């Protein structure tokens, strides 16, 4: 049996950050990762020509102080997302070009209904205590309501409702009928509101790290190389009065405490001895991930820029629901990232890769013209099929979960501590939230042992 002061399960941003901070504090750490790579729900492919593609989490934005601090610590620069042009919205087969967050070029009753919905969401976010959203004044009512119901009641114009449903439900890679309204408002509030979460410039997709997210997580993994074990899924965690034992398929590791830094649904696949407190155990059963595919179409050049477009587009119900320019910080090939989430992603996931590619390329050609139909390369990342991601990029809460079990998200269960972006009260669902959670968990274990 191997020994260390602390064990970390999961080598995504939360686990790597926790392990890095613990080693910097002078403690020994062992990091156990189920995948054959670090990075978790981020995954950067660095290609032979030096170009890079982020198949998972990609962007950083203002207010995400902890990921920016980590980048500064590691010497990683960022560059602005390309926004010099107009975005495109397709509704009922008609294309609308626009700037900003709301497509004012649509019919007045559509854009006006969207603006009114944004105002209401901002007001709702302002009422949420992000450290304990279940304590909000209307928490019980909102937690008994689905996002789909709220949209039906508050966004009467069909086109506006479809767009907002795609934007909001798509952020959580699920259908609007699966999502608690309280959860949606909390997640928006954790990042400052809908304008940040659904925006680009000055918002959630404001900038990218030079070299992709791998330029951040790989140096962390390199610093932990001697204590990082890949391809080692944790099967069980047992704790006693002296410490914890983590068992993998072919090894056991022992430490004073363990930080579990994996998606909530994946944490539920680990056997805990003794059993976890009932609320934490039931929480694992009630916070699933959704479905998301992230594909990239590569072209000789970003031809959409010459057409006055940013590459950002949205078309509800299509195989290419959302696109955005994913080009590098320097000149290189034109790259369109295509993100499809929720029920449409589940449909695409069931298709053969060639048929899926054809459906997506057809949607791009309809939107951007004939040049989009002949990419020089096409990549597909089906997160829905990722065994150790559990589905989409964010675990979500269905109705009733936050008010009944949300209080169990962060508190330690004896010597077992929890990290991961879903445990962050600030920037829930973002890489910054994962970094915050790893730093919090590291402080927790150090404080707990200091007090013992």
TrEMBL record:
GO terms for molecular function: putrescine oxidase activity. It comes from the Bacteria. Residues 13-446 form the Amine oxidase domain. Its cofactor is FAD. Gene3D superfamilies: 3.90.660.10, FAD/NAD(P)-binding domain, Guanine Nucleotide Dissociation Inhibitor, domain 1. SUPFAM superfamilies: FAD-linked reductases, C-terminal domain, FAD/NAD(P)-binding domain. FAD binds at residues 33-34, 422. Its EC number is 1.4.3.10. Keywords: Oxidoreductase. It is an enzyme of class 1 (oxidoreductase). Belongs to the flavin monoamine oxidase family. This is Putrescine oxidase.
């Amino acid at each position: 049996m191997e020994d260390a002061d602390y064990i970390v399960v999961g080598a995504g941003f939360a686990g790597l950050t926790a392990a890095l901070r613990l080693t910097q504090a002078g403690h020994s750490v062992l990091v156990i990762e189920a995948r054959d790579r670090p990075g978790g729900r981020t995954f950067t492919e660095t290609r032979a020509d030096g170009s890079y593609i982020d198949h998972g989490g990609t962007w950083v934005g203002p207010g995400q102080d902890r990921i920016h601090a980590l980048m500064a610590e590691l010497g990683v620069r960022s560059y602005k997302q390309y926004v010099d042009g107009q975005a495109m919205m397709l509704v009922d087969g008609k294309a609308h070009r626009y700037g900003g967050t709301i497509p004012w070029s649509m019919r007045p009753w559509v854009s006006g209904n969207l603006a009114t919905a944004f105002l209401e969401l901002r007001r709702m976010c302002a009422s949420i205590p992000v450290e304990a959203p279940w304590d909000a004044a209307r928490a019980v009512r909102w937690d008994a309501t689905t996002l789909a119901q709220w949209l039906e009641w508050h966004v009467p114009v069909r086109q506006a409702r479809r767009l907002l449903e795609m934007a909001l439900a798509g952020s959580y890679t699920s259908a609007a009928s699966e999502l608690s309204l309280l959860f949606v408002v909390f997640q928006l509030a954790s990042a400052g509101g809908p304008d940040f979460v659904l925006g680009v410039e000055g918002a959630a997709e404001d900038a990218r790290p030079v070299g992709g997210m791998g330029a951040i997580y790989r140096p962390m993994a390199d610093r932990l190389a001697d204590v990082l074990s890949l391809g080692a899924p944790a099967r069980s965690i047992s704790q006693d009065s002296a410490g914890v034992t983590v068992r993998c398929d072919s090894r056991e590791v022992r430490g004073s405490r363990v930080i579990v830094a994996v998606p909530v649904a994946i944490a539920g696949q680990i056997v805990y001895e003794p059993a976890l407190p009932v609320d934490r155990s039931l929480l694992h059963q009630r916070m699933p991930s959704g479905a998301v595919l992230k594909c990239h179409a590569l072209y000789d050049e970003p031809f959409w820029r010459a057409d006055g477009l940013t590459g950002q587009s949205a078309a509800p119900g299509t195989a290419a629901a959302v696109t955005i320019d994913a080009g590098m910080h320097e000149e290189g090939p034109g790259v369109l990232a295509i993100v499809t989430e929720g029920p449409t992603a589940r449909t695409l996931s069931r298709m053969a890769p060639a048929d899926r590619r054809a459906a997506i390329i057809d949607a791009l050609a309809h939107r951007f013209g004939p040049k989009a139909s002949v990419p020089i390369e096409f990549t597909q990342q089906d997160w829905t099929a990722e065994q150790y991601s559990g589905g989409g990029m964010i675990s979500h809460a269905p109705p009733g979960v936050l008010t009944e079990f949300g209080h169990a998200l962060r508190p330690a269960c004896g010597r077992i501590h929890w990290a991961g972006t879903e445990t962050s009260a600030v920037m829930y669902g973002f890489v910054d939230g994962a970094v915050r959670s790893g730093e919090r968990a590291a402080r927790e274990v150090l404080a707990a042992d200091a007090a013992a």
